[in-house]
Amino acid sequence: xxxxxxxxxxxxxxxxxxxxxxxxxxxxxxxxxxxxxxxxxxxxxxxxxxxxxxxxxxxxxxxxxxxxxxxxxxxxxxxxxxxxxxxxxxxxxxxxxxxxxxxxxxx
Length: 107
Description:
The chain has 2 domains: 2-31, no CATH class; 52-106, no CATH class. Helix content is 72%, strand content 0%. It has 4 helices and no strands. Helix 1 (2-17) crosses helix 2 (21-31) and helix 3 (52-64) packs antiparallel against helix 4.
């Protein structure tokens, strides 16, 4: 089976060298890692302790100043939104626990 695989690979390489784009695509897909898009790393003044609205404003200011690309800024704002949702859920859970504890104490 190994000999057959070697023969298949040789045929594919031969066809790729002859200009067969499908064969070249197969050979390259197996030899080279696929390239995945990555957001660029950015560095700008950002206060993570600021209120959520101020954090988003900081990102928008960085976009307007040309320090952060708009697509990267959107990713950052989306992340801030997710964090805001998590914090809101945690706050609601804490409030519910406090109400339940107060209700139990009254009984």
